[in-house]
Amino acid sequence: MAEVSTENPYGIIPALIQGGIVAQSLFVIMIIMSAGSWYIMFTRWFEQRKLFAESRTIEKKVWGAPALKDGASKLDKDSAYRQLADDAIYSFEKHVGAGGAREEADEWVQLALNRSSGLISARLNRGLPFLGSVGAVAPFVGLLGTVIGIYRALVNIGAAGQASIDKVAGPVGEALIMTAIGLAVAIPAVMGYNYLAGRNKDLLQRFNLFSADVHGYLIAGTRVSRPSVVAAPAKAAAPAAAKK
Predict the structure, then answer these.
(1) Nearest to 81 by CA among 225, 206, 215
(2) Residue 238 included in any domain
(3) Distances (CA, A) of 169 to 15, 67, 126, 160
(4) What is the 3-state secondary structure (H, E, C) of the chain?
(5) Has residue 234 been placed in a domain?
(6) Is the pTM of this model over 0.90?
(7) Residue 106 covered by a domain
């Protein structure tokens, strides 16, 4: 007895075969966008994770050392925190050691810190524009595949003279598949972009605090003092009820 074929004639592979070079090209483009998005999301996340872990050791490694230069030397060579400290120290020693006034060194240290912060920010944001572009473009790439699939369905109906299911199911299935793939590519990219951008904002805030401490230490000999938290005033006791 011959076996009955259970292969789905309306799956993704048959749909791509029926869609021709256009559907196949759009599918390859979305696969590339998806692979690039996931690569960027994972690599940026691991980099951020390393920086967050390092930020928790700054107090002990840097500010627990006898001098700022000694503390900075304990950090990794490719550390963003070390880049900030080394650039500021180099600028300070170059201008004060050359006989420059401390006020002049103040300006140069601030410029060095600003330059380093800009480079670090650019490094943290690498790949995020690609995620934003994928999140914006992928649904429209899927929509283009949808339009082409619907068009093919209409052409088949016109050629056959009637809207039979075998003429319509393939192109319509292709259209729906392309729409789903476009959304499957775009949604993770948008969520990843927002998640990584929020973590970058937190990291940059920590870098700014560290830069202020480094600047204060080099120019004034002390870190920038943190504002103390003012306790909320206690609520006044309710007046006793008047006796009748």
Answers:
(1) 206
(2) no
(3) 10, 74, 43, 14
(4) CCCCCCCCCCCHHHHHHHHHHHHHHHHHHHHHHHHHHHHHHHHHHHHHHHHHHHHCCHHHHCCCCCCHHHHHHCCCCCCHHHHHHHHHHHHHHHHHHCCCCHHHHHHHHHHHHHHHHHHHHHHHCCCHHHHHHHHHHHHHHHHHHHHHHHHHHHHHHHHHCCCCHHHHHHHHHHHHHHHHHHHHHHHHHHHHHHHHHHHHHHHHHHHHHHHHHHHHHHHHCCCCCCCCCCCCCCCCCCCCCCCC
(5) no
(6) no
(7) yes
pLDDT in tens for each of the 244 residues of the chain? 444 445 555 556 666 666 667 777 888 888 899 999 999 999 999 999 999 988 888 888 888 888 888 888 888 888 888 899 888 888 888 876 655 556 667 888 888 899 998 999 999 999 999 999 999 999 888 888 777 777 776 766 666 666 556 556 666 667 777 888 889 999 999 999 999 999 999 999 999 999 888 888 888 777 765 554 444 555 544 444 444 4
**Structural domain total, the chain:** 1
Burial class (CB in 10 A: 0-12, 13-18, 19+), 125: middle
Dihedral angle over CA of 70, 72, 73, 77, nearest 10: -170
CA 114 from chain centre, in angstroms, equals: 22
Instruction: Answer whether 180's CB lies under 8 Å from 221's CB.
Output: no
Say which amino acid occupies 243: K
Q: Whole domain around residue 83: which residue ranges?
A: 20-220
Q: How far apart are CA 178 and CA 183, in angstroms?
A: 9
Angle (nearest 5°) at CA 26 between 21 and 27: 95
